[in-house]
Each structure stands twice: as structure tokens, then as C-alpha cells.
Design goal:
- A hairpin with a 4-residue loop joins β1 and β2.
- The model has no long low-confidence stretch (mean pLDDT 97).
- α8 runs parallel beside α9.
- The radius of gyration is 27 Å and the shape is globular.
- Strands 6, 7, 8, 9, 11, 12, 14, 15, 19 and 20 form a 10-stranded antiparallel beta sheet that branches. Strands 21-22-23-26-27-28-29-30 form an 8-stranded parallel barrel, surrounded by 5 helices. Strands 5, 10, 13, 16, 17 and 18 form a 6-stranded antiparallel beta sheet that branches.
- By secondary structure, it is an alpha+beta fold.
- Bound molecules: alpha-D-galactopyranose (GLA).
- Alpha-D-galactopyranose binds next to loops.
């Protein structure tokens, strides 16, 4: 919803509980007046007029005491009297770098336009968009700030469009997707960080004067960081406090900053990483930034997460599976690695079917001559010898066991020892004259090259047309080095990282449109590209290659800060765990994997009868509760600081069923277990908890009885149902 105030100089963008307000000054500078809890107001221009002025800062436009650097700006550019970090840096053919943008006009419409070549959140009713146009008259350049309000979802999206109306090229050296200035700096910055096997740990630390910078230069959003940044109230916890957040719908190099200036103002930005980036914008052409999702919460991190989860499930993920419960799968990777034959796969599938699983996923090693990581990426033809016949025959036999069939691919890569590389050595990312570097024995295909894009679309289409494949795991197992493209002119080499992502999106768009029934799961050595850009095409992600139940606690809790549980692939694996050697009980492994989208990744044929029975029961139980987990609301019950205990609950859509889970990492001598207080129930309603009937107020204020752990890694789970 948009309200125009102050003679159409103030834009009040409103969603259910949040307001974002922009105001145009008489000089044509566009300012950010406010972002936060929804306001009722008739005029807001005074907020900017009231800002005090400091010394040693230039006046703007020769107006005494009109200091741009002290104003919260909507589009700060380089070369003016604001010497903080700009949102836009351009270089013109005359060598100049100054851009001076002033307001031109605005446009309001219902709905939202698709960003060319980029994932765009459009699928919701009642969306309203406002475009604010700025221009630089000297350079004949237009910059459009595009905000869309998703009223019911409490979400606002933003993107920026730069259009060159001059007759000469303009070089874009930096353009962010969102930039917001705050008149305060008393915040914590919150972000996700980690590494391969340790993704998405939530971090919170105080801001102080200077710049906090988070970025990826890896060609993918990366294991080490996520395209997400938030400023939080210093007292914020799971259920209280305010948080401002930006999440970028993008899968490549990004940069996010929180800059505190000398007068305790904060500038928060997120966008394509300006590192190794430059874009030649030809006359009459436009550059579209990826969009960001702006979410504000005034009730802590749980409310922030719930807003993201619902918005992403219902509006971002365009897959036909977005809101359908997902099949329980068995994946053969940790069960066999590369060492399998038909008999082994069928025995695994048979056990899986016996246990009630629904989807068999054949991971790496089914194609070309692939017996280890040294060969065959790029040759997506089934290895008949290894599969003991054709892939179609194997699929047929697996389907006869009552399972659907899924397949692993890593299409963006090529092995030097492959027919594809031998035929097209110039298709990889490399700088001619230098020996390209291998990682995991593979090169990255140059997805900026349309010939590569076409090849991938046709190879994978042929595979999906021929075989009865219900699911694809789309992997990406190395980052980009040797940044250079054979298909780009010298002046365009710095466009590669963004063009790679655009090429990938083009391929994914084509395949997901052509095969809407296929369930795609994205993976990049686990959560190395777990971002909204990938979720737009693929509604689930392999959260981490680390399958240890205890290691998964901070990974899944951190991931769930932004991404919905239905998108998190979580598998029960063997013990001792293959990544860390830890031994945890089947119960605890099940409880943790039920935090998301449950699967199994172990050799079921090696289980004892007792373990197999437990797995059977877990699968049956999960089928009963998966709708609560996958389509309900997640509420984290313990603070992330308390790393010895994790508890979380899911509330069903109709708020009648609750699944509560608790895991204690280490047992402690001589301690008395406290009770676990719940959140999100109805005070006055009554609930069945085991044998007992308790009111919501009891469960929230007195809580559930926790057992005293008699060993490390103990877990408990409760299914609570409302009674009439
Ligand atoms: C990556 C994935 C794993 C598995 C292997 C196969 O590491 O994250 O799940 O698919 O590749 O090579």
C-alpha cells in the first residue's frame, strides 16, 4: 500500500506491520525518513528538517548548512558532499566519476514487473509497486528505485535500474540493490557465517564507528557467508526486540555493509560485489540489479524468520512443489560413495521401501566412466556397465519397489578427462595462456557463454525427457578461480561473475519451465549456495555435507533464521558419523533431521533389526507430522547463545498441533533439568501432552518436563494436540 503525503513529496510504503518512508527534498535529493513499525501519519517531511547539522562537512548546492552527509539517503552517489560509502559508482568516457542524481518523477502501479533474466518475486495478490525516478542531467542517466509492497506478507522488495540515455558507454563499477541510512548506530549486526561442513552459524556482534563488511568473491554466495545482513536492537532475542534485515535474491558474488559514520549514523547496503565487477552499459541500455527482500520485525528473530518463511514458501519458490509436502528420500552417497553396482542399489532401495521411504536418489557416479572424482563431469550419459543395464531399466525396477527415482547432476562443471572437455576445451572459465587451476579435479564451465547454456539445456532436457526422473539434485562443487571468459571482449571481462549467474539462471529457468513436475534440490557441496536466488528455481537445498546430528544443530538453526524448514534437506546418516566420527543415537539423529525435510543417507542393509525398526517408526511418525514441520510455523525456543541445549517447535497452520523437539549436547554431572517453556500456544486452550491435559498458559509458563540426560547427545520430542 502506498500513501502520498506532503504534496506528493513523501512516499509512505506500508505493509501490514511495517512502514518504509521516502521523502524528496526541495533540492531533489531523495531521503529515507523512516523504516520500522507501521506508522499512522499525515506528514513526515519534518523528520528530515529536524536533523541537526555538524561541522567540517561541505554544504550542498551552496545552501548554508545543507549537508548531504548528514542526511539519510535513498541513493547516495560518488562525488558529492556525502563521503560515506556510495551505492552507485559510475565512470564515464571522459574519465569523470561524478554522478549527481535528482528526483524527476514517480510512478505507482499494482503488480510488479519481472526483472529481465533474474529471479523476481511476483506471485502474490495485491502487490503494489512504486518507482522513483532520479536523473543526472549532465550525463543523461536515469536511476530508478523500485519498491514493491507485499501487504499481507509484511515484506517489501527493492531493486534498482540504471539506464544510459547518453550516446556513450557508461561503466558501472558498483550498484547496490538496497541502501538504507539510519540516524542511529546503537545496533548489533547479525549475519550467517561458516565454512564447508559448518555453514550458516548465526553471528551477532556490536557495531561501532567504521565499516562492517561481509562478502563473497567465490562466484557463488558461498559456504562462508549468506547474502543477508540485519541490524538488531542490542536487546533483541528470539521473541523480543526490533530487527531490520536485507536478503538478496542472488546466487553470486555479493557485498553487504553496515557503516557507522562519525556522527553515529548507520548505512546498510547489499548488492552485487563491486570487487572484480564492471559493467559496460551501452547507450539506451538498462542494468537491472537483483532484488532484495526487506523484512522488519519488532518481535525478535522468531518473528523475522516466520515472515521470511511464509513469504519464501508462498511467493518466492515458483516450483509446483513449493507448498506440497516433500517425499522422504534415501540417498546412496554416504551409503556407497562411488562404489556401487545394480545389486547394491536395488538392495538399498528395497530396504528403503520396506522402511516406508518414498524417493530413491542416485548420487554421484552413475555416468561416463566416473569411479572417483577424476573423470566424466560433463558426460551425462549413464554408465550401463556400472548400472548393470540401462538407466531406464534401473528406474523401472526401483519404481516397482514403490519408490520414485531421483538423480544427482553437477552440470556447471567439467572434468579434464571427459568427452565434453576434449570437444570444447575453450568452454571453461580460464585466462588463455595460463594453466587453469583444478579444484576437486574439475573446471567450471563458462556459463556466460550462450553455447554452454544451450548445451546444458539440451543435454539435461534429453535426460529428463527420456527417463522417469521425479527429482534432480543439482550440485556445484567448487568455486570460481582463473576468472576469464573466452566469449567476452577484453573490456567486458569484469562482467563474467555476474554473467555466469545470469547464464545459470537462464538454464534453470528453461529447465524448470520445461519440467515443472520435477522436484529440484540445489546443493553446492552442501549449503555453499543456499540463497533466495536458487530457492526461486529449486524449492529445497542440501543444507550441509556435514550430517552429524550435533553439528547440524547450529547449522539448521542458523539456516532457519531466513530459509523455511521445507527447504532444508536433513538426513539421518550412519554412526560413527563420516565427517566428525561422533556416535549419536538413532533417536537424536531422527529428531534433528525432522527439523527440516527428512531423508536418509546410510547403508540401510547394514542396520540391525532393532535399528531398522526405529527407522521404520521414524519414517511413519514423520509422515504423520511432516505437514506441521514443512508448512507450519517454526519457533526456536532456546537462545543461540546457549549452545549446550537446542529446542524448537513447529505449530501447524491451523494451530492445533505442535511438534516440540529438544536436544542437549553434553550431559552434565549433578544438574537438575529445568522445564522447557513453550511459545505460540493459545493461553486458554487445552492440549493433550502424553497422558496429561494442560492449558496453553501452563505449557508456556510452567513448561514441559525435561529428562535428566544420562549420556551426551540426548534428545526428546513431543507431539501436542489441542483438545476441544
Ligand atoms: C557434494 C555433495 C554431496 C555429494 C557429493 C558427490 O559434495 O554435497 O552430497 O553429492 O558432492 O560427489
Amino acid at each position: 500500500m502506498l500513501e502520498l503525503l506532503d504534496n506528493q513529496r513523501t512516499f509512505h510504503i506500508q505493509v501490514k506491520h511495517t512502514s518504509l518512508v521516502l521523502h524528496v527534498l526541495p533540492t531533489g535529493h531523495v531521503t529515507i525518513v523512516y523504516w520500522g513499525k507501521r506508522l499512522e501519519s499525515k506528514s513526515l517531511a519534518y523528520v528530515i528538517q529536524d536533523i541537526g547539522r555538524a561541522s567540517y562537512i561541505s554544504d550542498t548546492d551552496g545552501i548554508k548548512d545543507f549537508k548531504l552527509e548528514q542526511l539519510p539517503q535513498a541513493m547516495p552517489t560518488f562525488g558529492n558532499s556525502d563521503l560515506r560509502t556510495p551505492a552507485l559508482e559510475l565512470e564515464y568516457t571522459d574519465g569523470s566519476r561524478i554522478t549527481n542524481l535528482r528526483y524527476k518523477e514517480f510512478k505507482v502501479y499494482s503488480g510488479k514487473e519481472h526483472l529481465p533474466g533474474l529471479p523476481t518475486i511476483t506471485s502474490a495478490e495485491g502487490v503494489e509497486t512504486v518507482e522513483i525516478l532520479l536523473e543526472d542531467c549532465v550525463q543523461q542517466l536515469i536511476v530508478k528505485l523500485v519498491f514493491s509492497a507485499f501487504y499481507d506478507y509484511d515484506a517489501i522488495t527493492q531493486s534498482i535500474v540504471v539506464t544510459n540515455l547518453s550516446e556513450k558507454n557508461v561503466t558501472i563499477e558498483k550498484v547496490v540493490s538496497s541502501t538504507i541510512d539510519f540516524l542511529e548506530a546503537d545496533y548489533d549486526v547479525c549475519y550467517l557465517s561458516g565454512a564447508w561442513g559448518r555453514e550458516a552459524h548465526r553471528q551477532v556482534r556490536p557495531l561501532s564507528q567504521g565499516t562492517f563488511l561481509l562478502d563473497s568473491k567465490r562466484g557463488a554466495s558461498g559456504h562462508g557467508q549468506n547474502p543477508f545482513i540485519a541490524l538488531a536492537d542490542k536487546q533483541a532475542n528470539e521473541n523480543n526486540g526490533f530487527i531490520y534485515s536485507m536478503n538478496m535474491v542472488y546466487s553470486g558474488n555479493f557485498q553487504a555493509i553496515a557503516e557507522v559514520d562519525m556522527h553515529q549514523n548507520t548505512r546498510m547496503q547489499i548488492g552485487i560485489n563491486p570487487f572484480d565487477f564492471a559493467w559496460q552499459l551501452a547507450p539506451q541500455h538498462s542494468f537491472y540489479t537483483p532484488e532484495t527482500v526487506l523484512i522488519y520485525s519488532d518481535q525478535g528473530y522468531n518473528q523475522l524468520s516466520s515472515t521470511y518463511h511464509r513469504f519464501y514458501r508462498e511467493c518466492l519458490m515458483k516450483s509446483s512443489h513449493a507448498e506440497k509436502v516433500r517425499p522422504v528420500l534415501i540417498n546412496n552417497w554416504e551409503a556407497t560413495y562411488f562404489d556401487f553396482d545394480k545389486a547394491k542399489l536395488l538392495s538399498l532401495a528395497k530396504e528403503a521401501a520396506d522402511c516406508g521411504m518414498e524417493l530413491f536418489v542416485l548420487d554421484d557416479g552413475w555416468f561416463g566412466n566416473r569411479a572417483d572424482t577424476t573423470t566424466s563431469l560433463g558426460d551425462w550419459r549413464p554408465n550401463h556397465q556400472k548400472l548393470g543395464g540401462s538407466l531406464s531399466e534401473l528406474i523401472e525396477e526401483i519404481q516397482q519397489l514403490g519408490l520414485q527415482f531421483g538423480l544427482w547432476v553437477e552440470p556447471e562443471m567439467v572434468s579434464p578427462n571427459s568427452d565434453l572437455y576434449r570437444a570444447h576445451p575453450d568452454w571453461i572459465i580460464q585466462v588463455v595462456g595460463r594453466k587453469p587451476q583444478l579444484a576437486r579435479n574439475q573446471y567450471v564451465l563458462d556459463l556466460a557463454n550462450p553455447a554452454v547454456q544451450d548445451y546444458l539445456i539440451s543435454e539435461l532436457s534429453a535426460l529428463l525427457e527420456k527417463e522417469k526422473i521425479a527429482y534432480i539434485k543439482w550440485d556445484m562443487n567448487r568455486n570460481i578461480t582463473d576468472s576469464g571468459s573466452n566469449c567476452l571482449a577484453a573490456a567486458k571481462q569484469k562482467e563474467l561473475s555476474h554473467r555466469y549467474v545470469l547464464g545459470l539462471y537462464h538454464v534453470l529457468e528453461a529447465l524448470t519451465e520445461k519440467f515443472p513436475e520435477v522436484l529440484f534440490e540445489s546443493c553446492a557441496g552442501g549449503g555453499g549456495r543456499y540463497d533466495p536466488g536458487m530457492l526461486y528455481y529449486m524449492p529445497q537445498t542440501w543444507t550441509s555435507d556435514d550430517t552429524d546430528a550435533i553439528e547440524r544443530l547450529p547449522i539448521q538453526s542458523g539456516t532457519s533464521l531466513i530459509y523455511p524448514p521445507i527447504s532444508m534437506g536433513c538426513h539421518v546418516s550412519a554412526v560413527p558419523n563420516h565427517q566428525v566420527g561422533r556416535i549419536t543415537s538413532m533417536d537424536t539423529r531422527g529428531i534433528v533431521a525432522m527439523q527440516g525435510n527428512l531423508g536418509y543417507e546410510l547403508d540401510l542393509t547394514q542396520l540391525t533389526a532393532e535399528e531398522k525398526q526405529l527407522v521404520k517408526e521414524q519414517v511413519a511418525h514423520y509422515k504423520e507430522i511432516r505437514e506441521i514441520v514443512q508448512l507450519g510455523q517454526l519457533i526456536r525456543l532456546t537462545e543461540v547463545e546457549n549452545q549446550n541445549q537446542y529446542a524448537w517447535l513447529y505449530r501447524s497452520k491451523d494451530a492445533t498441533s505442535f511438534l516440540v523437539s529438544f536436544v542437549q549436547v553434553l550431559a552434565k554431572a549433578n544438574t537438575v533439568p529445568k522445564r522447557l517453556k513453550l511459545t505460540g500456544l493459545d493461553d486458554k486452550a487445552y492440549y493433550q501432552v502424553g497422558e496429561r491435559i494442560c492449558s496453553g498458559s501452563e505449557l508456556m509458563n510452567i513448561g514441559l518436563k525435561l529428562e535428566k540426560p544420562t549420556a551426551d547427545y540426548a534428545g526428546q520430542q513431543w507431539l501436542i494436540k489441542k483438545v476441544n
